[in-house]
Design goal:
The protein is α+β, with helices and mostly antiparallel strands. It has three helices and seven strands, in the order αβββββββαα. A five-stranded antiparallel beta sheet has the order 1-2-3-6-7. Bound molecules: zinc ion (ZN).
Length: 174
């Protein structure tokens, strides 16, 4: 396993629509392992392949509490088949928008069909934190970031700060 570099907004790659995965083979499993390692190291609770620059419909998640055993979830070609009318609000962050958080309202429950790490078709009913994480990560596969749900003013402010943060990082490297 190896850690990959996480792409930070603004970057046109994050706006790309990811492609369906055709088969689950060793190289795909290796990629999923790398994604999980990168996510744990960040640390984060969810990561989409596009966040490491790979436009494939792949997500890794782990919403288990810190004091519990690790419980990774691998989602290949996830498809949300149902969302509830009832909504919930979480303060969301994103590994591609470091240091920025915002309250986002989403459906409180969702149903999902996907392919698992072993290449088997699976279904999942999620609510609470997991439902929010799944929707956040599936958005990534469609080139959508949580800041897209904010007002233009708030969104522009966050992007401006991210550009500034990037420049500061470059200064250190130089
Ligand atoms: Zn994210």
């Amino acid at each position: 396993m190896s850690q990959r570099k996480i792409i930070i907004e603004p970057d046109p790659i994050l706006r790309k629509k990811s492609e369906l995965v055709e088969k689950v083979d060793q190289s795909l499993k290796k990629l999923l392992d790398d994604m999980l390692e990168t996510m744990y190291a960040a640390p984060g609770i969810g990561l989409a392949a596009i966040q490491i620059g790979i436009p494939k419909r792949l997500i890794v998640l782990d919403v288990s509490k810190e004091d519990h055993k690790k419980d990774p979830l691998y989602l290949i070609n996830p498809e949300i088949t149902f969302t509830s009318k009832k909504t919930s609000i979480y303060e969301e962050g994103c590994l591609s928008l470091p240091g920025h958080f915002a309250e986002i309202e989403r459906p409180a429950e969702c149903h999902l069909s996907f392919i698992d790490y072993e290449g088997k078709k699976k279904k999942l009913k999620a609510h609470g934190l997991l439902a929010t994480c799944i929707q956040h990560e599936v958005d990534h596969l469609n080139g959508v970031l949580f800041i897209d749900y904010l007002s233009k003013l708030k969104k522009d402010m966050i992007i401006k700060k991210l550009i500034k943060q990037k420049k500061e990082i470059n200064k250190i490297i130089l």
